[in-house]
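Q: I have 263 residues here and want to know how they pack in 3D. Can you give me a structure?
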Amino acid sequence: MALGLTAVVIAAVLGGTQLDRTVSFSVPLAVIAFVLSGALVPALSGLKIATPSWAAPAVLVIAAVIGIGLVGQGDGESGDLSLPEQVGSGIVGDGLQFLVTDGSEITFTVGEKLSRLPLPSDAVVRTEALSGQLNLDEGSSQVSVDLSTLSSDQDFRDRYIQTRMFQNSPVAVFTVDVLGVLPPEFFSGETFTRQVSGSLNVNGGDFPLTFDLEVRNDGDVLNILARTVFTWDQFGIRVPNISNIVSVEDEVSVQLLLVAVPS
């Protein structure tokens, strides 16, 4: 039992170089398993309990099924965003120009498979480092994202993004030439939907991209929730797979919450 526990601890420490919190997760479970096994086996060995021969294998199968089903069901934050609670309605002032401000956020969600785990899970990276200007009456609108600030629940994933994916082009800029005529719902503070197409400048190239929007004007604050999906080759980005460590799916889901104030 002591040798088994020692082996698990060593494996957890080595695994911690690739997967965060391996030691804090694995070692307590190993202590419980080995200590209880070491104490209960001799304590119960003298008891005679009438059980069918298939009981022990059945319990092992049930435990394995439950364990596999729980793999990947971690405590990581979801990439889903939503419009904040409404605090007002209607436009304030005569202008229709807005500045992106605090409270804005973008998330990227992609299916990820770690080589050491039997089932895939979602990897979510996010940042609140957004800026830009929205022109709702005329002129183009731009939103910039500082990709060097993207973070997740895994340090190795963040280092890969910062040092290998966007090292030479840390800022992505999405530009829309014309947002179109505003519907009556905008001026009454009701939520309305719209689709906008524009150009995303990333890694030195310009690529077309379309977002589905939910828009609500709260008077002194404009809230926009935008969603889209893209593939890595759509932007000429190499799929961020690391041999024998992690592989990711081709499709990436993006959710963008813009909070803007009149300029």
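Q: Anything worth noting?
A: The longest helix spans residues 22-44. Strands lie at 97-100, 105-114, 121-127, 130-135, 141-146, 171-176, 192-202, 205-217, 222-231, 246-262.
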